[in-house]
Amino acid sequence: MKVTLKVWRQKNRNTPGGFKTYTSPELNGNMSFLEMLDVVNEELATRGEEPIAFDHDCREGICGTCSLVIDGKPHGPHKGIATCQTYMRSFKDGDEIVVEPFRAKAFPLIKDLVCDRKAFDRIQQAGGFITVRTGAAPDANSIPVPKPDADLAMDAAQCIGCGACVAACKNASAMLFVAAKISHLGLMPQGQPERYKRAKAMVDQMDEEGFGACTVTGSCEAVCPKEISLDFIARMNRDYGVALLKGDPKAVKGGGAG
Amino acid sequence: MNIVYRIWNSSLGKKYLMALTGAAMFAFLIGHLVGNLQVFGPPELINEYAHFLKSKPALIWGARLGLLACVGLHIFAAVTLAQLNAAARPQAYAKPGAYAASPASQYMLPTGIVILAFIVYHLAHFTAMLPGVNGLGDFSKLTTTLHGETVPDVYAMMVLGLQVTWVFLFYLIAQALLFMHLSHGLAAMFQSLGFRDHVWWPRIQCFAKGVSLALFLGYSLIAVAIYTRFIGTDYVDRKKYDLKAANAQPVPALVAAQGKEAK
């Protein structure tokens, strides 16, 4: 099979970009979308043209590095998988496929289809952690966790931070990502000490990065390769609201017990 | 940090404002519908109700100012969030996305703008009774006698007002868009305030669709019943006769329009 690619090409952030059309060489339907780009790039390189820059790493759907908006949908036509797990057999011979980078102010473009998603790292650093005793790993079951809570926390923890939620949202909102991170820690006993501080810190950082707000359209949930539920956004809204009602903790004079 | 500052300045805080003011306006919509459905009773029923409301200025002005504050905050939140959202994606996609998003959820701002225009018109039409906007004449001249007192004839005003085709159509369109706005907004309200989980979300969606449909049917029923001359025709004809008999000075435009409608 062969496909026509309409790809966003942009040299760097400060140079205006535009679409360029390429015809792929003969493809195998069992190639992944990224392998198809590899093949196209190989041909471009042999012709002496600049290959198309795109993000990729594990190619197993677990690292969250691959991106791409394929025909208007982040991670391609299927549900619950990333671009790397999208195969060419999902397209027909002769199809024209439009490939764009994730577009958001908070995800500035680096080159072609590669954008800078460090805003997610900064949100994580603002509060996506817990305080733990260092040393040997504690016994797995030393803290009892109800099974439904553990399952729900695992659902949230599945987030691979790829940013498809931002790319799909009409407001370029990062709520699903932030909600998943807040929930996965906030659902566990280990995450309780910083629960409300975390919600405030991560939401503040999210706002500072310039992401949009939530209109509850559900696009993020629909494109998420890990099918993270919008329920978590409600959970984040709840935690943030409770945090606001609780207010800041009492200021300690003289450094507390420390 | 200050709770007011955070609500005013954070994206989540503005969604709380949006949800809470929306909830208050939704409560008003239910009350307003119940009040208006009295038009299906005898004319005295709704006239008495209107007179009762007017006789409690603290109640009515409290509600009006409260609603005005809600509308103001709802618009403030909508405009600032829309700006934030537009700024968050400076470059649009070539292929339109909005994958899996319902039309209602994508067009909250446009439907909201039309509803706002309708509210302004509706207030000018029936509350301020500006003679220029109803296509008939001066509604404030319509009066009736209730327990020996001369009071505004709300029943006649509603019937005459909604018998005008373009007014009727505008009311109907506004109700349809309100249905669209609420079918999404009522559910999103719970989401924004954090009241949602896998058990309650289907129930909330069912509630939002059901209640917004009920409001649409209720409000439209009034307009349709009046426009199709199902209710009130005899009464407004009699009014016209009474007006003539009493040799009152009806507004010419109003009488002319009544005459046209009656034939």
Give a verbal description of the structure.
The complex is a heterodimer of chains A (258) and B (263). Helices cover 34% and strands 10% of the residues of chain A. Chain A is α+β, with helices and mostly antiparallel strands. In chain A, α3 packs antiparallel against α5 and α6 crosses α8. Chain B has 263 residues and is mostly helical. A two-stranded antiparallel ribbon of chain B has the order 1-2. Chain B has one domain: Up-down Bundle (3 helical TM bundles of succinate and fumarate reductases), CATH 1.20.1300. At the A-B interface, β4, α6, α7 and α8 of A face α1, α2, α4 and α8 of B.
Name the features:
heterodimer; A: 258 residues; alpha+beta; Ubiquitin-like (UB roll); Fumarate Reductase Iron-sulfur Protein, Chain B, domain 2; five-stranded mixed sheet; two-stranded antiparallel sheet; 8 helices; B: 263 residues; mainly alpha; 3 helical TM bundles of succinate and fumarate reductases; two-stranded antiparallel ribbon; 11 helices
How many domain regions of chain B?
A: 1
Please indicate the percent range of residues of chain A in DSSP E strands (runs of 2 or more): 5-15%
**Termini of chain A, distance in Å?**
68 Å
CATH topology of the largest domain in chain A: Fumarate Reductase Iron-sulfur Protein, Chain B, domain 2
State the CATH class of chain B: Mainly Alpha
Q: Could you name the ranges of chain B where pLDDT drops below 50 across 5 or more consecutive residues? A: none
- Please write the string of helix (H) and strand (E) elements of chain B: HHHHHHEEHHHHH
Architecture of the largest domain in chain A, CATH level 2?
A: Orthogonal Bundle
Radius of gyration of chain A: 21 Å
**Major sheet: arrangement of strands of chain A:** 2-1-5-3-4
Range of helix content of chain A: 25-40%
Report the mean per-residue pLDDT of chain A as an integer: 94
Round the Cα radius of gyration of chain B to an integer and report it.
22 Å
Reading off the top of the CATH hierarchy, the class of the largest domain in chain A is best stated as Mainly Alpha
Oligomer: heterodimer
Spans of chain A of at least 5 consecutive residues whose pLDDT stays below 50 are none
